[in-house]
Write a structure and sequence with these properties.
Shape of chain A: globular
Helix content of chain B: 25-40%
Structural class of chain A: alpha/beta
CATH class of the largest domain in chain B: Alpha Beta
Number of strands of chain A: 24
Strand content of chain B: 15-25%
Largest interface: A-B, 22 and 22 residues
CATH superfamily of the largest domain in chain B: Chloramphenicol acetyltransferase-like domain
CATH topology of the largest domain in chain A: FAD/NAD(P)-binding domain
Number of helices of chain B: 9
Distance between the termini of chain A: 71 Å
Number of domains of chain A: 3
Oligomer: heterodimer
CATH class of the largest domain in chain A: Alpha Beta
Chain lengths: 469, 439
């Protein structure tokens, strides 16, 4: 067996691992990255990027439909657009391929050696990689574990056939007429809404009281309204029990909140009940690394309990977000290079590309109250923002909400729901990281006409002096 | 409910303005009649100002250290029944006093909103949100301590710089809104605070604390400066053998009745001074240098410089010429106690025509006393110590004390001053002379 020794070994080529590897390479460390699948991880291959491509496709289709017949905004399509999902999926794949090659190019430029194959650790610093070119033993001084996560399944509803996960849902070759989705979290909602836009009949079976439980009710109401207007049924407090195949079609049986068993016949049953860290099947148990529940335990520098073994991203638990993994990967590479770094983000923004989009950074008013913080809250609706109206984005009930401490006006939470609000998330995060006060935001000139004006107005509203309210 | 305005009362004849020394009430406090509102400083005495009525404080006048006119608005109250001013109407001075009210009425305590007061309460409604972040941020103590578990507020760049420098940002004072820590704050900590943290052993303590000079201290400072600028001091130090006086004093103390106070050196010294003043009455004069008039008094009103917790005061023993040694001791004790506890009256702090200053056992060898203007003489007592003295053909231990005295050289010549002190010296060295009434 060939063997390879290096300074830094990164396991997993997702947004955590590949960024760690690039940074380590840039800092002159002899770095190897091992990836069994394609570079880019879940995010690039079967998560963020492909889902956004499909959502974009679905939205374009839906928009064109709105111009069919009577027309809209003075644009009239004489006949309805034709959707070919297989073609859309291959267009999506070109986007993925392009980014994929981009990552490979960046790694090469940083001098990182990419090893394709599945790494299995025999001890904390040594692994064997089974790949197409045979096996390779790699030993390293520093190990960065970025093994990511996989979709969770339900014990009584195994994936396979017409029971699919988000991975398959991004690669369907035809549009299902009826789609039943178990779990109305952000992944289920993003995909369900996209398929609804494409014309599928969509039903959600959710175990909790309402959709997107990580956001408060005020925030999710515009999404609930969109679902209602588009005849998407959301059955809450229901428990999916089994899927049986009747006439080659899956039938999902569930128990509603009254305890009544009910069923839905569908073409596909999509299971989106969360993700769990990949801790099995690669020798983690041989590395003497402490766990914390289902994920690897790390400190604020992402050190594990084993010397010179680091873990980042989904493997170390919630929030399982690409941008968190990226920030951790960059930091760990710098720590290994001898710099003083630690993960002390004030807020990790979260975004759902639902219809409309929803953004949350920091604390909600209720969370702040729970922590004993007295707050002032400023809210401003997109219905009063000129740009939103001009973009047909003013009627979805969207708004920006700024939460600040009552005593010194320090901004502790920024939330928004509405069309395109995902792009506001970075301003929100910056505001929290810099420790801004309401007066800082209200005192910053915001460009007119933009959706972001709502942020300034919300801050003004928090100070009791919104202009356009 | 009505509004009641309290104006700065007349605290003594001829006093046009007073300095606020300390507030005893804050906006929102409920107070009762005769509760202390504040302490003000007149030319020398601290005067307590009580409230004439019950009520809730809605506004207070200038902050401590500010001088205000007698008759200016001092406190506004909300009182039961009718007040003495109309709601919302400003009792003329309210708006033009030196300082705006720091806290707007009603910001701290929610108040009922009765109809007729709409005018006054409109202002209160806007005060429910802090006026500005800096205003509210200024209130708590500087920088540390932060609430437990709270992360310091600083931008990622500042945080990284602190990390690189090995500085715990929780220890750094943030000067920005909401105590946000800037690069400049970090600079200040690095140049100042970090030295204390990393250097072993004794280190330079660069701390500077600022205290506003207000109240009695400001008064003392002004008087001292004025006195030393205007009066050319002539200082004369003489040695006095008080061995016999000490023997007499010890004996008198041993034989005193229970109702008689313990005698210190001071009553004897006062007696000696009274005696010397009879021979040198010009030493008990007051010199009005603006009008160039010297007023010479037959009475001996003797000021006794006294250290109190808030500073130097000079209570006055009036007509010391009428007091025997025991009465004198009793009066000294009473005045000193009144001065130290702050209960001394204004009239007991003025009117002296000569002053005695004594540091007791800390008296040192010599001092340069500052004249209690407009007096012309001050006599300082230094400590008594056993010293070897050549006497009657041998060296013997004697109780020796120095007198350090200063005179206004514009009025008193050195020769006279010397003779005055010699007169005191003679009386003290032969204590029987103290009790010879030879008019």
């Amino acid at each position: 067996m060939d063997s390879l020794a290096c300074k830094v070994l990164v396991v997993g080529g997702g947004p955590g691992g590949y960024v760690a590897a690039i940074r380590a390479g840039q800092l002159g460390l002899d770095t190897v990255i091992v990836e069994a699948d394609r570079l880019g991880g879940t995010c690039l291959n079967r998560g963020c990027i492909p889902s956004k491509a499909l959502i974009q496709g679905a939205s374009s289709y839906e928009e064109m439909l709105s111009h069919t017949g009577k027309g809209h905004m003075g644009i009239c399509l004489p006949s309805a657009p034709v959707l070919d999902l297989a073609d859309m999926v291959s267009w999506k794949n070109t986007v993925v391929d392009k980014l994929n090659q981009g990552v490979a190019g960046l790694l090469k430029k940083a001098g990182v050696k990419v090893v394709n194959g599945w790494a299995t650790f025999s001890d904390a610093k040594t692994c064997e990689v089974e790949g197409e070119q045979g096996s390779l033993s790699i030993s390293a001084e520093y190990v960065i574990l970025a093994n990511g996560s996989s979709v969770s399944a339900l014990p009584d509803i195994p994936l396979g056939g017409n029971v699919i996960s988000s991975t398959e849902a991004l690669n369907l070759d035809g549009l299902p007429d009826e789609l039943a989705i178990i779990g109305a979290g952000y992944i289920g909602l993003e995909l369900g809404i996209a398929y609804r836009k494409m014309g599928a009949k969509v039903t959600f079976i959710e175990g909790l009281e309402r959709i997107l439980p990580l956001f408060d009710k005020e925030m999710t109401r515009p999404i609930e309204n969109w679902l209602k207007r588009h005849e998407v049924e959301v059955v809450c407090q229901a428990r999916a029990e089994k899927v049986e195949t009747v006439n080659d079609k899956p039938v999902l049986f569930y128990r509603d909140k009254q305890g009544q068993q009910r069923s839905i016949a569908a073409d596909k049953v999509l299971v989106t009940v969360g993700r769990r860290p990949n801790t099995l099947g690669w020798g983690l148990e041989n590395m003497c690394v402490d766990m914390e529940g289902s994920h690897v335990k790390v400190d604020k520098q992402c050190r594990t309990s084993m010397k010179n073994v680091w873990a980042i991203g989904d493997l170390v638990g919630e929030p399982m977000l690409a941008h968190k993994a990226t920030a951790q990967g960059e930091m760990v590479a710098e720590v290994i290079a001898g710099e003083r770094r630690e993960f002390d983000a004030r807020a990790i923004p979260s975004v759902c590309f639902t219809e409309p989009e929803i953004v949350g950074v920091g604390l909600s008013p209720a969370e702040a109250t729970q922590q004993g913080i007295e707050t002032v809250v400023g809210k401003f609706p997109f219905a009063a923002i000129g740009k939103a109206l001009a973009m047909n984005a003013g009627t979805d009930g969207g708004f920006v909400r700024v939460t600040a401490r009552a005593d010194n006006h320090l901004v502790i939470g920024m939330h928004a729901v509405g069309a395109h609000v995902a792009e506001l998330s970075n301003q929100f995060a910056l505001a929290l990281e810099l420790g801004t006060c309401l007066e800082d935001i209200s005192g910053t000139i915001h460009v007119h006409p933009t959706l972001g004006e709502a942020t300034m107005e919300a801050a003004l509203a928090g100070l009791g002096k919104a202009i356009h309210a | 409910m009505g509004n009641y305005l309290i104006k700065m009362p007349d605290v003594g004849e001829g006093i046009a303005e007073v300095e606020i020394v300390e507030w005893s009430v804050a906006v929102g406090d409920s107070i009762e009649e005769d509760d202390l509102l504040c302490v003000v400083m007149t030319d020398k005495a601290a005067v307590e100002i009580p409230s004439p009525v019950d009520g809730q404080v809605t506004w207070i006048g200038p902050e401590a250290g500010i001088t205000m006119a007698v008759g200016a608005d001092l406190v506004r109250l909300q009182v039961e029944g009718q007040g003495n001013i109309a709601a919302g109407a400003s009792g003329d001075g309210a708006e033009n006093t030196a300082t705006e009210p720091a806290t707007k009425p009603g910001a701290d305590t929610p108040q009922p909103m009765p109809g007729p007061e709409a005018g006054a309460n409109r202002k209160q409604a806007t005060a429910s949100v802090p006026v500005s972040a800096t205003a509210s941020a200024a209130a708590p103590a500087r920088g540390i301590p932060r609430p437990e578990g709270e992360k310091p507020i600083a931008s990622p760049a500042v945080r990284q710089r602190a990390r690189d420098a090995g500085i715990d940002l929780r220890l750094v004072h943030g000067s920005g809104p909401a105590h946000r820590i800037s690069h400049a704050d970090l600079d200040a900590f690095i140049t100042g605070g970090i030295l204390a943290a990393v250097t072993a052993g004794p280190i330079a303590d660069t701390a500077v604390s600022e205290t506003r000079v207000i109240g009695l201290r400001r008064k003392i400072a002004a008087i001292m400066q004025d006195t030393m600028q205007r009066i050319p001091h002539y200082t004369y130090v003489e040695e006095v053998d008080v061995t016999e006086l000490e023997m007499l004093r010890t004996r008198m103390n041993n034989e005193r009745r229970d109702d008689q106070p313990k005698l210190t050196m001071l009553p004897f010294f006062i007696r000696a001074t009274v005696k010397a003043l009879r021979e040198f009455p010009e030493m008990g004069s007051r010199y009005d240098d603006e009008n160039e008039i010297v007023r010479q008094y037959s009475a001996a009103h003797i000021g006794i410089a006294t250290q109190t917790p808030s500073g130097l005061l000079v209570p006055v023993i009036r007509h010391a010429e009428t007091l025997d040694i025991w009465q004198s001791a009793t009066e000294i004790k009473r005045l000193a106690e009144a001065a130290r506890t702050g209960t001394i009256g204004r009239e007991e702090l003025s009117g002296s025509n000569i002053t005695i200053t004594s540091l007791g056992p800390l008296g040192g060898i010599a001092t340069t006393p500052v004249i209690n203007s407009p007096e012309v003489a001050i006599v300082g007592i230094n400590k008594v110590a056993k010293r070897p003295v050549w006497k009657d053909g041998g060296v013997v231990p004697r109780d020796i004390m120095h007198l350090s005295s200063s005179f206004d050289h514009r009025i008193i010549d050195g020769w006279e001053a010397t003779q005055f002190i010699q007169c005191i010296k003679n009386a003290l060295e032969c204590p029987a002379m103290l009790f010879m009434e030879a008019r």
